[in-house]
């Protein structure tokens, strides 16, 4: 796999699926609502073919159910299930950081440095789109997964992105809304990189999990407000509660749980 290989362009069905999915996640399309192909085609200005493919993508991500001769209906996606998804990705990412620190593969380390440099350049720009910043953060975490040389971790994380609501979640601005929050994210990812470069897998895993835990809590807080929904507090677990953050981190966790 080439570390510098660019992501392929998204097709029209993929773009449509992302927009419909975002409307499901933030509550604009409610559970049980029927999605009518002709109305969607008119709304997006495309034929019914791309709409049908977009609906199949959404079905694979468990956002809708397609019933024969009845049509497509929005499935219930709870805030608890979204928190569970964050936690599954976080556990895999932490493992990947530990493995990458042991291996220190030159190509993937250079790619991770470039990702962090890209984020650093974006961090203070006033015109930066938070969604673009979130996308590069995701690419940085994906680089760590690939640098772990664990094909199963890479495959499972890819499947979580392709067959769950993960990609769709980030089509709504959930984090990185201010220059200060973006700079703090860069600082914390740089700590992960430093630990990996030093071969310190324990610190790499701790720093990455701490960063991703706070990302999760913020995203759940925003989605909870949009959806008028609360999450079970135990799902906002912190693997290193005695680490950076202390009482303030506990307050944020309780706030995210509502």
Automatic annotation (TrEMBL):
GO MF entries: DNA binding; DNA-binding transcription factor activity
Entry-linked InterPro entries: GntR_C, TF_FadR/GntR_C, Tscrpt_reg_HTH_GntR, WH-like_DNA-bd_sf, WH_DNA-bd_sf
Record's keyword terms, sorted: DNA-binding, Transcription, Transcription regulation
Pfam families: FCD, GntR
Residues covered by the HTH gntR-type domain: 10-77
Keyword Transcription regulation: yes
Domain of life according to the entry: Bacteria
PANTHER family: HTH-TYPE TRANSCRIPTIONAL REGULATOR LGOR-RELATED, TRANSCRIPTIONAL REGULATOR, GNTR FAMILY
This protein's name: DNA-binding GntR family transcriptional regulator
Biological source species: Quisquiliibacterium transsilvanicum
Lineage, highest ranks first: Bacteria, Pseudomonadati, Pseudomonadota, Betaproteobacteria, Burkholderiales
